[in-house]
Design brief:
Blueprint lengths: L25 E2 L20 H11 L20 E2 L1 H12 L16 E3 L2 H10 L6 H13 L1 E6 L6 E2 L8 E4 L8 E8 L2 E9 L9 H9 L5 E3 L3 E6 L6 E9 L2 E7 L3 H10 L1 E6 L17 E3 L2 H10 L10 H14 L1 E6 L6 E2 L8 E4 L8 E8 L2 E9 L9 H9 L5 E3 L3 E5 L8 E8 L2 E7 L3 H10 L1 E6 L1
Antiparallel strand pairs: 1-2, 3-6, 4-13, 5-7, 6-7, 7-8, 8-12, 9-10, 10-11, 11-12, 14-17, 15-24, 16-18, 17-18, 18-19, 19-23, 20-21, 21-22, 22-23
Length: 466
């Protein structure tokens, strides 16, 4: 099997199995021991593995501790955020030569709820002024289609219950080339399925040579001359990926935290099809953006950030998105905060990254504030969102259906809309309810629905004025 194949970006871990896709900003403790700058996994070397680990940690992927957080503090401000990640990538580039010039700044992937939504963005994108996005859209449009996963029994399903997005368009970066990613489930297990373009700057003779030259990935176990299996170090959590050629200009990567035998079973049923990119006119009253949520230790820190309206710590292309978010809160003069009569609902100060998040507008969610809370030993995510004035519908359920594409509500007592997005062995359930004429609340948990219902009976809302 001699194919020309393309590149991928190890930094795609930023849209892995984490709880949020976010640019975290968290204070860290003092550390005085000697270290190698960039060596966050503390293995004695600064490598691609360190970049992947930091991205996953910033996005709250479970079980991704930083052995040496200080090695990632490239801004020297005792905080870790997206700017440190960008500088970290640039530092790594100084030691690795690549026939393709990487972008000056990291270009974030674009997340969507469905493949249809991704196709709409490819057709009508207004992000073409950003070079990395323009190249990505052009590559898809030149093909005239996107690859999409499929299987004979329709047992491989899109994870529509994901907190952020199930489908991602991947622009070129040093660690990844243009492609599309699907978060899917099969027999109660989760997999990431990527379809990539080959990079013509790497004329390697086959996929495995390409992996070594372009991605510096070695020790690939080639099975039946079709699948290449690679294990990636990730502390105590197994991470395994499979690679195979799709055609002369595309290849597929499948990544999972499941054991290799589960991955092999999945590969036996996985297939693919082409979805045409139709040249039609699709309009949306609001243009989606890609700026990521920003994490804070508590509500007071979030309010201070709103007051300061300081966006300089984040990628410049997202400045306007963050300013609009801060201004929306400032216009209110307050933020909604969770409350209960017995003070039994508490902020999760033990959260790995941050307990409070300010959420900019995106195609999959509105501007709002998120609290990670605990109640009776169980964990919940409480969001307070602004209604989007571009969607003038008569009630919350129609709004959520039109704005977020969520259907199949079970409306309880005309107040709570319950959506069960459980996936195989994992329970994922959310409740929505109106707060006032311009705000609504979403509560999400991995607990059973009866636990969520109990939580809703004690949850109330209050305004924190600033």
């Amino acid at each position: 099997m001699k194919k020309k194949i393309m590149a991928f970006m190890l930094a795609a871990a930023c849209i892995g199995t984490g709880t949020l896709n976010c640019a975290a900003a968290v204070n860290a403790a003092e550390q005085d021991t000697a270290y190698i700058m960039g060596d966050v996994n503390d293995d004695g070397a600064f490598s691609i593995a360190d970049v992947v680990l930091l991205q996953k940690w910033l996005l709250a992927v479970p079980d991704t501790p930083l052995a040496n957080w200080k090695a990632a503090d490239f801004c020297a401000d005792n905080k870790l955020n997206a700017l440190d990640l960008t500088l970290m990538k640039r530092a790594l580039l100084e030691n690795i030569q690549d026939p393709v010039e990487p972008p000056a700044d990291h270009i974030a992937p674009l997340g969507f709820k469905t493949a249809d939504d991704a196709i709409k963005e490819i057709i009508q994108s207004d992000l073409s002024e950003i070079e990395g996005y323009a190249q990505m859209f052009e590559r898809f449009r030149n093909d005239g289609f996107i690859y999409h996963f499929t299987d004979a029994e329709n047992a491989v399903t899109l994870q529509e219950d994901r907190t952020n997005a199930a489908v991602w368009l991947m622009p070129y970066d040093y660690f990844e080339d243009t492609g599309i990613l699907y978060h899917v489930a099969y027999q109660g297990k989760d997999y990431q399925v990527y379809y990539y373009f080959n990079d013509p700057a790497f004329p390697e003779s086959d996929l495995w040579d390409y992996m070594e030259q372009r991605l510096h990935t070695e020790n690939i176990n080639v099975v039946d001359e079709k699948y290449g299996i690679a294990h990636h170090p990730n502390g105590g959590q197994p991470v395994v990926s499979a690679y195979f050629a799709v055609d002369d200009t595309h290849y597929c990567k499948v990544r999972t935290f499941e054991p290799e035998d589960a991955l092999m079973d999945f590969l036996q049923v996985l297939n693919y099809e082409k979805l045409d990119i139709a040249d039609n006119s699709i309009t949306d009253p609001v243009t989606p953006v890609t700026a990521q949520p920003i994490g804070y230790k508590d509500a007071e820190a979030a309010i201070e950030a709103i007051h300061n309206n300081d966006v300089n710590a984040y990628p410049e292309q997202y400045y306007d998105d963050y300013r609009k978010m801060f201004e929306r809160f400032s216009e209110d003069g307050y933020i909604y905060h969770f409350a209960d009569a017995e003070n039994a609902i508490t902020l999760r100060e033990d959260h790995p990254n941050a307990a409070v998040w300010l959420m900019p507008y995106a195609n999959y969610e509105d501007i709002g504030v998120l609290y990670h809370v605990a109640y009776q030993g169980k964990y919940y995510q409480v969001y307070y969102y602004f209604n989007d004035p571009a969607y003038t519908v008569s009630d919350l359920w129609k709004y959520i259906e039109q704005r977020l594409g969520i259907k199949n509500f079970n409306v309880v007592d005309e107040k709570y809309g319950i959506v069960d997005n459980s996936n195989g062995e994992q329970s994922v359930v959310s409740a929505f309810f109106a707060v006032d004429d311009t705000h609504y609340c979403k509560v999400r948990t991995y607990e059973p629905e009866d636990a969520l219902t109990d939580f809703l009976q004690v949850l109330s809302s209050e305004k924190t004025v600033f």
